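Hi team,

Filling in the usual template for the complex we talked about on Friday. All components are listed, including any nucleic acid strands or ligand strings, so the model treats them as one assembly.

SUBMITTER: L.P.
PURPOSE: interface mapping
COMPONENTS: two
RESIDUES: 560
SEQUENCES:
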Amino acid sequence: MKIIAPIKRLIDHNVKVRVKADGSGVDLANVKMSMNPFDEIAVEEAIRLKEAGKADEVVVVSIGVKQAQETLRTALAMGADRAILVVAADDVHQDIEPLAVAKILKAVIDAEAPGLVIAGKQAIDNDMNATGQMLAALLGWGQATYASEVGIEGDHAVVTREVDGGLQTIKVKLPAIVTADLRLNEPRYASLPNIMKAKKKPLDEKTAADYGVDVTPRLEIVKTAEPAARSAGEMVGSVDELVSKLKEKGIV
Amino acid sequence: MAVLLLAEIAGGALALDATAKAVTAAKSLGDVTVLVAGPAAAGQAASQIDGVAKVVVADDAAYANGLAEPVADLVVSLAGNYEHIVAPSTASAKNILPRVAALLDVMVLSDVTAVVDGSTFERPIYAGNAMQTVKSNDSKKVLTVRTTAFDAAGQGGSGAVEAIAAAGNAGLSEWVEDKVAASDRPELTSAKIVVSGGRGVGSEENFAIIEALADKLGAAVGASRAAVDSGFAPNDWQVGQTGKVVAPELYIAVGISGAIQHLAGMKDSKVIVAINKDEEAPIFQVADYGLVADLFEAVPDLTKALKE
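RESULT (copied from the run log):
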């Protein structure tokens, strides 16, 4: 079975986000970019399934600017077998919406015919939490989102999902889409020899036009602003003072 | 201008708080029809929410566990009559609505925090580090609304309830089991008071002092991601961008430093209390009342003081 793991290159999660003065978005010029953390978990899971003998090939796909090939190399260094880059934007500030990403991925999947797709549950830039679900809809496949455990049993995946109030286990027919939640695994670091080896692994480059997908955004950005700041209140000296303040406010 | 609102069903019953909050967001967009993919009793409960014009109920085994594929197909089968499709931002609806949107060839708008007009909405991006206002150019708008951003609509509605046929089930997935944590405490996202513990609590056993304070206050218990990752607390207690977003009347953060990802999940709380031994902890910058103290002394003292 072949597994596809789509990955997104975005601002590193340790970088402080700055809103651009013109309100068009967040400043991404000259900031450190990395793989979306949830996608890293997805890639790790795909590699583990291969190591467990449940899959024979892991293909990583990224859609965005040309520089996303660095992110794909990172996934190859982790252990993915080959990569596909779909160039769909010239400027890093141009975010490709989940619907367009899902359409491109559908075209890739139609050509590659994987048995399973594992994606991150959401990208930590636009926080849409949508690509996996949209891709499942377009393919007419089942979906198992927010996975904390994935098992392959014959022609099904058995997936434990993180839901409100606890866990839900479902069985989904393969091929299917799984989206990774935080607790699915802890991704490995690539070793230096593997980073060197990754440079020789195949990386195909395509464009959105090759797949006939129009990436024009459906959502127009009206403005981007800093969130309303919350100012610090007062420090209290003791538990008794805290209790009397809360009683004054009438909340305890 | 009509709105179809997918009701939140939990444990076979209407999740009133989440649904009523979504109704508040939805009624500014047009007449609200609530879709209940569940039992008739949930439909009756939904009809009592103020602002609900009509309720349609599809009670079928296919919807018993909220699986995304059949519920999405049901929503799509009804979508023709509505310009907006709305649901509260719960794990269940966030699983279903993007699927609906893709089937309708429109974008989804996740976690909407404000409705500007019928096609313009505000939503957080980058874990709440920026707020973006976007205008949808799609013919239909499919959105999930963040429940902490809207007050719950009251009772007193008298919408008509109509049973509708199910829309079939392609059988792409099947439910195996739910492991829902049984608790007498209020649900985290709708609790009036939340007491959360962080890495500073130190162990799963030590969380007992957080729980004792919570029980004294009739509060829900939360945890930071650091505490969850360290195995001190279960994942469904996690408050933060990647966990639950809460906005209670009172939020007590104990041994939590205040990472951005945690603040994104609780900064809309009305009153924030922080107890931390590190006076430099960023949590104090958002707290209304800060107490620099050893939590192992301060929290039991606080629990005791509240008993008197």
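MY TAKE: Chain A has six helices and 13 strands. The mean pLDDT of chain A is 95.

Thanks, L.
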